[in-house]
Amino acid sequence: MSDNGKLYDALDARFFAPLRRKRTRRIGVELEFPVWNLTPGAATDFDAVHAATEEFLSRFNFPDTAFDDTGALFRARDVQTEDELSFDCSFNTLEISFGPDENLTTVHHRFRAYYAALQKAFERRGHALTGMGINPRWRENRPEPIGNGRYRMLLHHLKSYSKYGGTPRFHDHPDFGLFSCASQTQIDADEETVIPVINAFNLLEPFKAVLFANSPFGARGEVLCGRDRLWSQSLHGLNPHNCGMYGVTLRSLSDLAGYLESTSLYCAERGGWYLNFSPVPLSEYLGKGTMRAEYWDSKAHEHRSCLFSPDANDVAWLRPFKFEDLTQRGTVEFRSVCEQPVRDAFAPAAFHAGLAENVSALASLLAADTVLYGHGYGAAELRGLMARRDWPSFIDRSALTAQLHRILDLAEDGLRKRGFHEETFLAPLRRRANTLVSPAREQMERLAKGESLESIAEDYGTLNSGEDIHA
Fold first, then answer.
1. Which fold has domain 24-248+327-460?
2. Using 50, 70 and 90 to split pLDDT, how confident is the model at 2?
3. 470 neighbors 427 (Cβ within 8 angstroms)
4. 328 close to 310: Cβ distance less than 8 angstroms
5. pLDDT per residue as tens digits for the range 419-454
């Protein structure tokens, strides 16, 4: 079989075969929370993190566990619900992910129980969780990855950006994965729905920046969704097709396959070792012959060089980080949303789930939009503009509010179709549409009035009391 045939079969098995079944309404929710030390100027104490984790696991039954090279637990899973407690890239970020479920309200009840227990466990040790897209102690925290091959490889890869010159321009925070936090939602897809979903939600991204930005970054917080820049101007953005938005309208599954072939592979696995090498477009990978890579030798505690031969099965290690990402699970994963204040943590999942029920109407609404579109800018450019603190002069704020409410009307209608009474999760987004104030913009306004970052972090990390989740 030719290299092209092998590549096609590997892509088909990983990404497209899972779409050949009836779509369900199941949703996956992944929430990443910064762990921060309540002592001013102090880094996260990993011993406190491990102790808090042990306390949580003494209360909840998560028996499927994984440990790093140092013996520290970094993942635990409930085999019945498939809910998972883990640490993302480092012990500075705690992730709670939930097994696929149709009913967000049911999932939210479990989330409340998990989060309340975790917050108490951390507070007893002088730490806390918060709902921010950037860890409030990111400057003080230890930039150490979790001690296993995958995370060591990833940080080693990102730190190698200086080998690639100054074009494109890279930022100097290659450890951004250790302090930036996202709220990710996965929606089930099939062969008929995946292309319309990706296209419509790609056009939606500028409006999402208005509602969900929560990672102010820069000397004056001039970028309200700094996560975008941290990804695109890292080594992940060496090939712009590997992250961010689509610059094309996909017409078919064949188009999507071609797009995946244009993304770059930078890691593989051989004999239990994670290999890292210079990014290579997948379409060129199999023709490379022997390649040089680096891996972490855990016994020698150093990176070593080796040679390996590319294989079609290495498609399993393809890691695109698109805002609308086709996964190997037959889902579209939405990755552009910053972690939200904890009381609003399920707003993004409800928003995406509702709109997924009304994709055709959403696409029509956005195709006719003149609030953001029609002023000479494409979707990706508009996302960049609306993710900033200062918006362009052509923005009519009243018209923007009205359009956001039309989008939210479609989301609410879609949630009613789902029939699980999930509409209440949209309440904070209605308020943000009225005021055009995202969590990041609110944070900057509060800081300008003299409030401390610690006070805001405490507020953004608080669950509401009582049964009314948005009281």
1. Creatine Kinase; Chain A, domain 2 (3.30.590)
2. low
3. yes
4. no
5. 999 999 999 999 999 999 999 999 999 999 999 999
